[in-house]
Amino acid sequence: MKLRASRLALIMPLCVLLSAAQGCQKNDADAISTPSAPTAPTFPAGQHFVTVGFWQNSTCTGEMIGTTAFPVDFGETRCFTWTGRSGMNSASRFTCGAESFSYTQWTTLTCSGGQVPEGTRKTVTISGCTQGVPPQQYGRILDFSGCTF
After folding, report:
1. pTM for this entry
2. Cα 114 → chain centroid
3. Is 48 exposed, middle or buried (0-12, 13-18, 19+ CB in 10 A)?
4. 21 FRET partner, CA 20 to 30 A, in 12, 67, 85, 107?
5. Is residue 105 part of a domain?
6. How high is the mean pLDDT of the chain?
7. Dihedrals φ, ψ of 11, to 5°?
8. What is the DSSP letter of 17?
9. Is 17 contained in some domain?
10. Using one digit for the tens of pLDDT, what is the confidence trace for 44-86?
11. How many structural domains are present in the chain?
C-alpha cells in the first residue's frame, strides 16, 4: 500500500500538468483534482518540482513536444520514472544551480543500466535553449520555483 501511494504521488503531478494534452484520468480516490482552466500545477506540500519544456528546434520556440516536472526533493539518491516519446525514462542526481537544473537520465525505469552512454548528465537553464540527447531535442526551464524554496 505504501508503494502504491508513493507511485501515485509521483504520477499525479504529471497527470495534473499534462491532463489537457494527454488525457490523464483521475478517480474519486485521487487527492489532486484536475483544474478546469489552464493553471500552474499543484503539488503535494513538501515536494518541489522544476518543470522543463522540450522542443525540436534550437530556439525553444513554437510548439513544445513535451514537458516533464522533475522532483527536486529526490536529490542525489531517489529515482524518478516516466514514459516519454522514446519509451522508458528515469532520472536521479537532481541538483539546482543559480539559474540551472541538472539531472542524470537513464533509458531504463531503474536509474541504472540502459543504452550507451549509460546515465546521461543533462543541464537545462532558465534563459538558454540547451541541446539534449538525442541531439534533435532541446530543453529550457519553464518553472524554476522548485529550486527557489
Report:
1. 0.67
2. 19
3. middle
4. 107
5. yes
6. 75
7. -80, -40
8. H
9. no
10. 556 899 999 999 999 999 999 999 999 999 988 899 998 776 6
11. 1
